[in-house]
Write a structure and sequence with these properties.
This protein is an alpha/beta fold and 196 residues long. Among the domains are: 132-164, no CATH class; 166-195, no CATH class. It has eight helices and seven strands, in the order H-E-H-E-H-E-H-E-H-E-H-H-E-H-E. A three-stranded parallel beta sheet has the order 3-4-5. Strand 3, helix 4 and strand 4 form a beta-alpha-beta unit. The chain is globular, with a radius of gyration of 18 Å.
């Protein structure tokens, strides 16, 4: 859901969007989004090099902003089995960042080695962390007003059908506990709609 809204918001603001999809169903959904124009890279088979595809799409210049939903920190054989191998490697993201680019990551345990930092330094690139809970942790909740403005902006776009959320089938209330446990154990990466 976060990626869907981010793609639509970026397209609405005039950005050229390159997205990855982990299944044929996701790819078809992303290609149907309006306004049309997002390039969707299907990584479900694991044969596509995301960095190479992005650099080809941008004429070798790289991208201005990378917004990830997680990254691989280690090589495939060193990565824990529970972590999805479909995620891009951190070096791929560093490679596809353009000069002055911004990497916004949801990876809470991101570790950058000195060569990685040096690469960011040479490109004048930055790394930011995206944490949904940060609004609640602010000492005086100064972000609350900005959060309200942001959501009212999003809700306005949803009401005008500029943005279309991707909703899964609602789950009945009696299955909510089991579903939430699955999400909390990181066995599923989605938001749930509970039907009362």
């Amino acid at each position: 859901p976060f990626g869907t809204i981010a793609i639509q918001l970026a397209q609405h603001r005039g950005a050229k969007v390159i997205s990855t999809a982990h299944s044929l169903e996701d790819k078809q959904y992303l290609e149907r989004l309006r306004p049309a124009g997002a390039r969707v890279i299907d990584v479900s088979h694991g044969k596509i090099d995301v960095a190479e595809s992005c650099l080809e799409e941008t004429g070798g210049l790289g991208v201005d902003i990378v917004l990830d939903a997680g990254v691989r920190l280690y090589s495939a054989e060193d990565e824990p089995a529970s972590k999805s191998q479909l995620l891009p490697h951190k070096h791929d993201i560093l490679t596809l960042l353009g000069v002055g680019g911004h990497w916004i990551t949801t990876e809470k345990d991101l570790q950058l080695d000195p060569p990685d930092s040096h690469s960011l330094f040479l490109k004048g690139a930055t790394v930011s962390f995206l944490n949904d809970e940060v609004w609640n942790l602010s000492n005086v909740q100064q972000g609350k007003y900005l959060d309200i403005l942001w959501w009212s902006y999003i809700m306005e776009k949803l009401s005008k059908s500029i943005f279309r959320p991707q909703l899964d089938e609602p789950i009945p209330l009696y299955e909510a506990k089991v579903s939430m446990e699955i999400v909390q154990k990181n066995q599923a990466r989605k938001r749930l709609v509970i039907q009362f």
